Amino acid sequence: MLVIGSDHGGLNLKAALKEYLAQRKVEVADAGTQTNDSVDYPEFGLKVAEMVVSGSAERGILVCGTGIGMSIAANKVPGIRAALVTDPFMARMAKEHNNANILVLGGRVLTEQQACELVGAWLDASFEGGRHQGRLDLISDIEKKYSK
């Protein structure tokens, strides 16, 4: 299962992505928000990150106005590798080289078509392992060093 979350700045794009994911027959849980009322993006970034880390979702997608805030918030959770992407190459590399378990998008900077293309590239890619796993292990070491 994939979990998707957004703040008010990503609500419309989240709705379009849910339709796209349904067409691809991807099971999706929606972690909010559900309205255009102003909300605090860290709450939704945390919800999605916790679902991914706990294993209740295999991966996640976050959307806010630019994607910057959500990526910062989600990456505070140990075990999360949230990647803010803006083109298909970045989306593919986020999975192939970084094994990104959360894809982050900007609702105010991408069209629906662009966002769907990025999600497709990420979903269709596979982690390559090998030398990239060693780098992820180094990232895990950093998390352990600074986690309390």
What level of helicity do the residues show?
A: 40-55%
Q: Pick out the low-confidence regions.
A: none
- Helix and strand element order: EHEHEHEHEHH
Biggest β-sheet: count, sense, barrel?
5 strands, parallel
Provide the spatial order of strands within the biggest beta sheet.
Answer: 2-1-3-5-4
The total count of helices amounts to: 6
Rg over alpha carbons: 14 Å
Q: What's the shape?
A: globular
Number of strands: 5
Calculate the mean pLDDT score and round it. Answer: 97
Classification by helices and strands? alpha/beta
Model description:
The model has no long low-confidence stretch (mean pLDDT 97). It is globular, with a radius of gyration of 14 Å. With 148 residues, it is an alpha/beta fold. The protein has a 5-stranded parallel β-sheet, sandwiched between helices. The protein has helices at 11-23, 41-54, 68-74, 88-96, 112-124, 131-146, and strands spanning 2-6, 28-30, 59-64, 82-84, 102-106. Strand 4, helix 4 and strand 5 (102-106) form a beta-alpha-beta unit. The protein is built from 6 helices and 5 strands, in the order βαβαβαβαβαα.
Write the layout of secondary structure elements.
Blueprint: E1 2-6, H1 11-23, E2 28-30, H2 41-54, E3 59-64, H3 68-74, E4 82-84, H4 88-96, E5 102-106, H5 112-124, H6 131-146
Parallel strand pairs: 1-2, 1-3, 3-5, 4-5
Helix pairs in contact: 1-5, 2-3, 4-5
List keywords for this structure.
6 helices, five-stranded parallel β-sheet, 49% helix, single chain, 148 residues, alpha/beta
Q: Quick summary of this structure?
A:
This protein is α/β, with parallel strands linked by helices and about 150 residues long. The chain contains six helices and five strands, in the order βαβαβαβαβαα. The chain has a five-stranded parallel sheet with strand order 2-1-3-5-4, sandwiched between helices.
